């Protein structure tokens, strides 16, 4: 019985990693769509959302099954509940990628404009945050989660700078307003993804450290 | 033992309702700050965020304790996991209220400008969505949750209209760009709150209907 439960936990972990992969792929595709002004890449993001939603439901159901299967130990309970929370964050990373793809579609209909904001670099940073947050959870490394929190400050700063330069650009060249606004909103969407990575990291610290405290640090060195 | 567990479930429900009240209060305060250009009301939103975060942690811990206490029935399991998810959404409603208050602080430093967007009405709609989503959960009424999903479409439309008129305003009066942008971003924050209400409603349909199917409809008529 214990073995079947443990097997289920492994499966849950695997599914969550796969879910993380789908979320990262969604970010990549959205940014590729942005870089290449590519409506087909936008469509790939929209199509991918269905898979992400299905994966979310699967994980929730498996978590329920595991909780119903036997009386889990406190450390396993914390793990399962953390998966449920992180799962919801990953699903919303996918939603943000969809929002970006929608803005890109809008941009494609406007003439291309030079903007002084490096969206691909910002996207790379937030994708790394999602990756590391998930890694910190899977490996139970709270210090890696702390590093994610630090990165969030950097992303906030990039977004604030983008805000200033884009407002400036809109003032100087009103004809670029709509285009600049799309870029600004994409920067906001990326900031939201960073927030989800931060939520995951905070959950890791809370759930993992909690488990740590309750189990004398044997499970999760931090 | 069963009685203590049931008592714990009641406490969990109560705490979640209180959390919902805090989230709604945060929206109200943020909109009051907007309407009155009131920095003190902004500060009240910032202060309230601490209470919301503390309430979130409390609910998570109680959920863990309940799951650890005994082997819950499937219907109770679904209820507890739904609380954990809804709890996270309510916390983020509070985050959005903080974002609005930050934009209001920015607006206060600009001269007041007439904008053709009814933020208070939009805020009222999204606050109602949060309220109804929570009500649908507490009462186990999936049809009320469906109504919340319908309202989300209305909010999306209001936000899209706001987008168009504000871009137009920025083009015509570039000197109002920053102010208009603040309003636009507040409309986006409100839309995000509507998304959280939608998430809650979707969870209600998923968790409650699931419970319904598994228990022959006795617990949650829908």
TrEMBL record, chains A, B:
Keywords: Cytoplasm, Phosphate transport, Transport. Homodimer. This is Phosphate-specific transport system accessory protein PhoU. One of its GO terms (cellular component) is cytoplasm. Belongs to the PhoU family. Plays a role in the regulation of phosphate uptake. One of its GO terms (biological process) is phosphate ion transport. InterPro entries: PhoU (IPR028366), PhoU-like_sf (IPR038078), PhoU_dom (IPR026022). Residues 16-104, 119-204 form the PhoU domain. It comes from Koribacter versatilis (strain Ellin345). It comes from the Bacteria. It is found in: Cytoplasm.
